[in-house]
Amino acid sequence: MAKKLYVGGISYSSTEDGLKDYFSQAGEVVSTAIITDKMTGRSKGFGFVEMSSDDEAAKAIEMFDGKEFDGRTLKVNEARPMERR
Questions:
Q1: Residues with Cβ within 8 Å of residue 46, at least 6 apart in sequence
Q2: Distance separating alpha carbons of residues 8 and 16, to the nearest angstrom
Q3: Are 3 and 51 in contact (CB under 8 A)?
Q4: Confidence (pTM)
Q5: What SS3 state is found at 68?
Q6: How far apart are the two ends of the chain, measured CA to CA in Å?
Q7: Cα 21–45–60 angle (5° rounding)?
Q8: CATH architecture for the domain at 3-78
Q9: CA–CA separation, 75 and 19 (whole Å)
Q10: Among residues 45, 44, 68, 58, which one has the least CA distance to residue 4?
Q11: Alpha carbon 78 to its chain's center
């Protein structure tokens, strides 16, 4: 089962392909998404990476949480369901 990770602190210049390449060091990346502002199209500085297994997701958290990517320090943890507003 795939595991979705929250990735915070993403540089505004980072791309989904760059994020996928970086996280592939920990295992197979199923998907990546950088969240953008609907009005401006600019990155909001966070996104999601979906790993192909729980073990790979745990490895990615261990490898990349607190590490630098594109000049910014990443915060990586297991994604939680979106809360109702």
A1: 6, 7, 8, 9, 10, 34, 35
A2: 13
A3: yes
A4: 0.91
A5: strand
A6: 28
A7: 40
A8: 2-Layer Sandwich (3.30)
A9: 13
A10: 58
A11: 10
Spatial distance between the Cα atoms of 23 and 4, rounded to a whole number of angstroms: 12
pLDDT (tens digit per residue) in 28-80: 999 999 999 999 999 999 999 999 999 999 999 999 999 999 999 999 999 98
Q: Where are the alpha helices (DSSP H) in 1-85?
A: 16-23, 54-64
As a whole number of angstroms, the distance between CA 10 and CA 8 comes to: 6
pLDDT tens for 4-42 read 999 999 999 999 999 999 999 999 999 999 999 999 999
| Separation of alpha carbons 5 and 71, rounded Å | 20
